[in-house]
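Retro notes - structure team

What went well: the batch runner handled both jobs without manual restarts.
What didn't: labels got mixed up in the shared folder, which is why I'm recording both outputs here explicitly, each with its sequence directly above its tokens.

Job 1
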Amino acid sequence: MIEWLTGVQNEEMLAALLFYKKNHETDDWADDLTSKQKTKIYQRLEDVKAGRVSESSEVWKKYGR
């Protein structure tokens, strides 16, 4: 793999690999959420599992697009 990587000449491939590398080196954005934010997310996930959801068309009517 290292031998192959050192021989890559394609700029797009190198850019994609660099993007992938940087993306996996950074901390997970979820680590920065407060406990209140995490609680809200878990509550909404439970709402979805329980079928307590709205049609997207209703949300767009209420909040506009």
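Job 2
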Amino acid sequence: MNPAFHWNVKQLFVFVVATYATPTNPKNQIVLWDRIIENTDPSKVIREENVFVKYGLVDQGAELRGRDVELSLVWDHMPLTGNLHMGEQGKDGRGSFVLPSEYQ
């Protein structure tokens, strides 16, 4: 995340978004995890292993079953002064998976 910082960035609000489509709702986005990285943090690097989601991946009814889910890393630049703007990981760096069609 170090390249995202410059003189006018106080902190970054970083979050992972799951995006999927269902018959009822053609586009769904859910934040699964988030973190704030301060400009004073010397490494400005995110290293996470075996992380549990902070916010559940839930949908109405059973519409998540068997769905393709795409994960993306997004961040908000929180400036010292001026406008707030967002950044996002490139399309080639995103992950995806398919949810099981049956749950026990």
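One thing worth noting from job 2: The chain has a mean pLDDT of 86.
We'll revisit the folder naming next retro.
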